[in-house]
């Protein structure tokens, strides 16, 4: 070859070219060499080339030089050279000795960047626990990167084949990888499988194996190239998560309440069976669907509520009314709360609802019944009032005329006639008493009565006054114990209750000195009265019955009365938001009642 051309090639080559002698000195270096290392030609030729080599690479380099001196050539040998600035470059050498001149001809390439990239790749593979492999389908031989050896737990550098590769898969999964590899070779299909794998130490892990056939120009499979990755940690976490999700889904599904879990876009993530039942959704598949698609008639104000909850609020309503598109009325109680992802961010909302339509309907029905009852009670009271009021006049006439008949014409009547007349008069008197009591009873609920404030001692004094004669006739005493002063009640009615109870205590009494004790007390909310007598007492078991109208335990001819007194007391006490009861004692009885302070009638 033309010497000039050779000189030019030497001069302009991008590769590092040099000649060295067996004493270990460069004889000639090209400009690329000078440029790469930063030393001048003079500096490079002056020192032995071993001086420029990284101390860790000296030994290997000496071995390589030794081989060259024996006539061998070097291909792809790599070592590090120090540059003028102190840093190192990786050079890859192809050298050949010239026996004639005793010189070494060498070409080097700066592979520092490739080396860096390679190291990076290696690190990445280490971090990702991932290795690359290549299978030659003709020989069955495989090439593995170091990471695969590590996962297999085999010493790197050993020769491997497809059989070694497959052997360590879990027995139950081997058929899968065999089929995948066969299909890649025969059908040119790629594969990507997750299988169980046994490391050489017996540990079972999950791995991912992915392979792609690489085709030759004639369309045949040249090699299969793929990756192999230890995905044990991720896979176990994924499985644990899946189990957890499964548990959660099941829990929600079988919750005996209507619950639904939605994402930020109001799409269903989970719901209980009861949700479908309560909203007549049958077997509908609503997971993944928007709430607004499932319920197109959702109220606008509810949509606002959803947004508020997605912004962090918890909302609740005990009774809400929903008129559905088809006109059905639904009452529901509901609670909405946001749920949070693992970063603590709102990820959607949870709806808990209870359809209470039936409950409300029953309640409304009951309310109506109560109203009807109140009305019919009022009607009855009105009737009793009108009847008793209007009966009084004709009754009085019967009484008056019977008495006139007795006074003026009793001589005209024989014994039987007089007996009949006597009975008519007595019956008229009794009827008068009954009608009067009834009138009094029906008056209690009427408007005339109103709550006023008054002094209880005054009222008690008046009652004692009214009973004065009756006490005298019966040699009876009343003992009062009270420190209550001002009270608020319907004065006349409270008077009636106290009067009746005191009167009964003396009336139903056979002792020589009938004694009735009255105690009055109060607390923050109620006034308490107790009337205790030493009379004949109330038969056990009858203590409720005696509060019914016209209920009497004793014969009229022994103890006169209409049987309305206690019923009247009960009615008055209840109008004052209170209660009344009787407790039979060994001797005598105790009647107790309480009324609300300042009641609203
Ligand atoms: P009346 O006194 O007109 O009979 P009440 O309604 O006041 O009607 O009483 C109903 C019945 O309760 C009485 O008939 C009587 O049998 C019984 N009773 C009421 N108070 C007493 C009492 N202090 N001791 C015993 N029995 C009583």
Describe the structure in brief.
The chain has helices at residues 3-12, 31-37, 41-46, 58-69, 112-128, 146-152, 162-167, 174-186, 232-254, 273-278, 291-294, 300-310, 357-409, 415-443, 456-474, 491-507, 565-575; strands spanning 16-20, 26-29, 74-82, 88-98, 103-110, 130-135, 141-144, 160-161, 191-198, 204-215, 221-230, 258-263, 268-271, 315-323, 329-340, 346-355, 452-455, 477-482, 486-489, 515-522, 526-533, 579-584, 589-596.
Cofactors, ions, other ligands:
adenosine-5'-diphosphate
Q: Strands of the biggest beta sheet: in what spatial order?
A: 8-7-6-11-10-9
The 3D shape can be described as: rod-shaped
Q: The biggest beta sheet, please?
A: 6 strands, antiparallel
**Which percent bin holds the helix content?**
40-55%
Number of strands: 23
**In percent terms, what proportion of residues is strand?**
25-35%
Multimerization status: single chain
What is the gyration radius calculated from CA atoms? 57 Å
Low-confidence stretches: none
Structural class: alpha+beta
Number of helices in the DSSP assignment: 17
* Through-space gap between termini: 131 Å
The average pLDDT score comes to 91
């Amino acid at each position: 070859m033309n010497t000039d051309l050779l000189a030019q090639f030497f001069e302009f080559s991008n590769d590092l070219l040099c000649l060295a002698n067996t004493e270990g000195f460069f004889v000639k270096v090209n400009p690329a060499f000078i440029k790469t290392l930063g030393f001048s030609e003079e500096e490079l030729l002056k020192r032995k080339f071993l001086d420029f080599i990284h101390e860790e690479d000296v030994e290997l380099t000496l071995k390589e030089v030794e081989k060259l001196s024996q006539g061998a050539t070097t291909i792809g040998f790599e070592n590090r050279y120090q540059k003028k600035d102190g840093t190192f470059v990786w050079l890859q050498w192809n050298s050949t000795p010239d026996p004639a001149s005793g010189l070494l001809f060498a070409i080097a390439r700066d592979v520092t960047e490739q080396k860096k990239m390679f190291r990076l790749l290696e690190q990445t593979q280490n971090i990702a626990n991932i290795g690359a492999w290549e299978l030659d389908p003709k020989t069955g031989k495989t090439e593995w990167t170091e990471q695969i050896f590590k996962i297999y737990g085999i010493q790197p550098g050993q020769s491997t084949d497809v059989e070694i590769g497959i052997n360590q898969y879990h027995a139950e999964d081997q058929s899968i990888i065999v089929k995948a590899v066969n299909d890649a070779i025969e059908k040119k299909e790629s594969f990507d499988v997750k299988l169980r794998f046994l490391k050489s130490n017996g540990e079972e892990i999950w791995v991912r194996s992915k392979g792609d056939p690489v085709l030759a120009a004639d369309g045949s499979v040249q090699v299969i190239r793929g990756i192999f990755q230890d995905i044990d940690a991720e896979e176990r976490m994924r499985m644990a998560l899946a189990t957890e999700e499964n548990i959660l889904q099941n829990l929600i599904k079988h919750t005996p309440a209507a619950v639904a879990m939605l994402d930020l876009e109001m799409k269903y993530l989970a719901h209980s069976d009861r949700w479908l039942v309560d909203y007549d959704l049958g077997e509908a598949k609503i997971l993944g669907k928007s709430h607004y698609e499932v319920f197109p008639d959702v109220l606008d104000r509810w949509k606002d509520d959803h947004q508020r909850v997605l912004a962090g609020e918890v909302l609740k309503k005990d009774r809400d009314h929903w008129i559905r598109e088809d006109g059905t009325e639904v009452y529901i109680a509901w609670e909405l709360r946001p749920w949070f992802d693992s970063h603590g961010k709102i990820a959607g909302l949870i709806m808990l609802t209870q359809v209470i339509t039936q409950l409300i309907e029953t309640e409304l029905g009951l309310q109506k019944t109560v109203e009807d009852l109140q009305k019919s009670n009022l009607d009855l009271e009105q009737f009793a009032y009108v009847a008793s009021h209007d009966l009084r006049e004709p009754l009085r006439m019967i009484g008056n005329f019977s008495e006139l008949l007795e006074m003026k014409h009793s001589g005209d009547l024989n014994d039987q006639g007089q007996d009949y007349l006597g009975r008519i008069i007595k019956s008229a008197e009794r009827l008068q008493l009954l009608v009067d009591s009834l009138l009094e009873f029906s008056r209690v609920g009427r408007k005339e009565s109103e709550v006023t404030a008054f002094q209880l001692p005054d009222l008690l004094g008046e009652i004692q006054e009214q009973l004065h004669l009756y006490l005298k006739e019966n040699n009876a005493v009343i003992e009062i114990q009270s420190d209550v002063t001002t009270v608020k009640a319907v004065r006349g009615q409270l008077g009636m209750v106290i009067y009746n109870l005191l009167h009964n205590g003396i009336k139903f009494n056979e002792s020589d000195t009938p004694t009735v004790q009255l105690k009055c007390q109060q607390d923050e909310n109620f006034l308490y009265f107790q009337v205790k007598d030493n009379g004949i007492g109330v038969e056990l078991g009858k203590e409720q019955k005696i509060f019914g109208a016209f209920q009497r335990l004793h014969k009229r001819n022994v103890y006169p009365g209409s049987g309305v007194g206690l019923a009247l007391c009960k009615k008055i006490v209840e109008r004052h938001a209170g209660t009344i009861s009787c407790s039979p004692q060994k001797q005598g009885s105790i009647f107790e009642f309480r009324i609300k302070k300042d009641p609203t009638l």
